[in-house]
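Lab notes, practical 5.
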Amino acid sequence: MPGRYALVCWFKGHLESGGVSDLIVADSGGGDPPLPESNAALTMLDYAFGLSAPLRVGRNVVRVENRGLEVHEVDVFRLKPGMTSDALIAWQAGDQEGESPGIPMGGTLDVEPGDHLWIELELEPGSYVLICTVPAPDGAPHAHKGMVMVVELSG
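Output from the prediction step:
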């Protein structure tokens, strides 16, 4: 429905530190809106990610598609210097106290099997982790089943 909406992150002080953004939905006038032009496609499977093309420094428009049988998400973090994807996974699995090993850069909420959407990421040189923390039927986060991808971007 056309209107102005707010996207809000309620997790541990994220709202106070800028975890809010406007979302404006325009009336398409009855026709289908044009699809975003993407430079890469990210496929989510049970339990892996696949990229059709490398991400790049600067603006990325990524088509995200869930080809798995379970709900998935992708959270994108830029690792802080000296940190690893294992440190980020351990921090997320723990009580998430103390400083995070990564800086959140964007991502999706839950994406149902067969659905797709687009995300825009502005990336600098560095190490990035794409991770799915949705719980599997056995309760373990998908990241613990291998749904993690590390992407290195050089300047």
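Observations recorded by the TA: The chain is about 5% helix and 40% strand. The longest strand covers residues 58-66.
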